Amino acid sequence: MSASATVAVLGAGSWGTALSLLLCRNGHQVRLWSHDAAQIDALQRDGENRQFLPGFPLPPALTPTTSLDAALAGATDCLLVVPSHAFRQVLTLLPERLPNDSGIAWATKGLEPKTGQLLHRVAHDVLGVNRPLAVVSGPSFALEVARGLPTAITVAANQTAFADRIAHLLHSERFRAYTSSDIIGVEVCGAAKNVLAIATGIADGLGFGANTRAALITRGLAELIRIGTALGGRAETFMGLAGMGDLVLTCTDNQSRNRRMGLALARGMNVTAALAEIGQEVEGVVTALSVHTLAASLGIEMPISEQVYRVLYEQVSPEQATAALLEREPKPELG
Ligand SMILES: NC(=O)c1ccc[n+]([C@@H]2O[C@H](COP(=O)([O-])OP(=O)(O)OC[C@H]3O[C@@H](n4cnc5c(N)ncnc54)[C@H](O)[C@@H]3O)[C@@H](O)[C@H]2O)c1
Ligand SMILES: O=P(O)(O)OC[C@H](O)CO
């Protein structure tokens, strides 16, 4: 655990709130910002985040605010936890409010929806390439972190000292933070695993068994490695917490909104209705489109992710998508 810091956490959904609780438990002060005044009113009134993470009282060290100036003034650290669709928009508000050399970390998992860019590339666009940047990723359901259940994640940064700083802020006996220098690999894992979690939800929803689930996870990992290494990530990253760890977590547990999207699609629900039922961000829906475009432009085969894209965007039924996967010709497993 590091000396007491003042952290601006930008994004007050379930993950921003859970990380804020963790930081407060670690002895830090947190300013939790939301763009939504009604949400901040509710946090102040209820003393908890009833909408996104009910049942966890907000400690005195946590100050909810709708003012970005108040959140950032004098903050020692800044952690973005907004959905990927809001990432650039929020990032753009930061340079005029932060010293030029202050680092920025994020725990968002996804690609920029309109461009398919990795989020550190968006950060380069907005902030330049010299600032310390870090991404926090890995198998971590907000609810379990809020409950203090043991969790391990990865912090990948462009500067070793910055990875160490963010890891130390988050690290505790119940939350192990490992460091990495592979931002690309860690970002690809966090984004693309969501598409594979939708696939596994579909398979489980259609009544396929444990064999199918294991096959999807393993062949899904091969897809992650293929696209991630083509984009410049290191192969070993995909075997770690941000890769295999998060893939297994989201493919196997119904706390995952992406997996629940797949289960809903298998019940015959359309995407809009399923999103409304889930009521929270489901990053894999837009990421499936970006992965489809990226894989095509890189000439990479991602058959499972491709079928998820077809179900989401081309009115292919879950049954047809499954049949298309099963009808593929045999091929060598490796290579
Ligand atoms: N929930 C988890 O367990 C978990 C774990 C790891 C990573 N993540 C990632 O964290 C990110 C946030 O997810 P979440 O689970 O907290 O989402 P959530 O659905 O719980 O909450 C979304 C939050 O984003 C805010 N928001 C929406 N549009 C915004 C905008 N334009 N500007 C600013 N804020 C906006 C909403 O007000 C809300 O507070 C996602 O990328 C997700 O993949 C989530
Ligand atoms: O609920 P999901 O599917 O967005 O997954 C949440 C986290 O990414 C799990 O690590």
From TrEMBL:
Compartment annotation: Cytoplasm
Glycerol-3-phosphate dehydrogenase NAD-dependent N-terminal domain mapped to chain residues: 7-162
Active site per database record: K193 (proton acceptor)
Catalytic activity as recorded in UniProt: sn-glycerol 3-phosphate + NAD(+) = dihydroxyacetone phosphate + NADH + H(+); sn-glycerol 3-phosphate + NADP(+) = dihydroxyacetone phosphate + NADPH + H(+)
Protein's GO biological process: carbohydrate metabolic process; glycerol-3-phosphate biosynthetic process; glycerol-3-phosphate catabolic process; glycerophospholipid biosynthetic process
Swiss-Prot/TrEMBL keywords: Cytoplasm, Lipid biosynthesis, Lipid metabolism, NAD, NADP, Nucleotide-binding, Oxidoreductase, Phospholipid biosynthesis, Phospholipid metabolism
Gene Ontology terms, MF aspect: glycerol-3-phosphate dehydrogenase (NAD+) activity; glycerol-3-phosphate dehydrogenase (NADP+) activity; NAD binding
Annotated positions binding sn-glycerol 3-phosphate: K109, G138, S140, K193, D246, S256, R257, N258
E.C. code: 1.1.1.94
Record domain Glycerol-3-phosphate dehydrogenase NAD-dependent C-terminal: where: 182-322
Binding site for NADPH: S14, W15, H35, K109, A142, R257, E283
One cellular component (GO) term of this entry: cytosol
Keyword Oxidoreductase: yes
Pathway: Membrane lipid metabolism; glycerophospholipid metabolism
Annotated residues for binding of substrate: K109, R257, N258
Amino-acid positions noted as binding NAD(+) in the UniProt annotation, renumbered to this chain: G11, A12, G13, S14, W15, G16, A142, R257
Function: Catalyzes the reduction of the glycolytic intermediate dihydroxyacetone phosphate (DHAP) to sn-glycerol 3-phosphate (G3P), the key precursor for phospholipid synthesis.
Family: Belongs to the NAD-dependent glycerol-3-phosphate dehydrogenase family.
UniProt-listed PANTHER family: GLYCEROL-3-PHOSPHATE DEHYDROGENASE, GLYCEROL-3-PHOSPHATE DEHYDROGENASE [NAD(+)] 2, CHLOROPLASTIC
Protein name (record): Glycerol-3-phosphate dehydrogenase [NAD(P)+]
Annotated organism of origin: Chromatium okenii
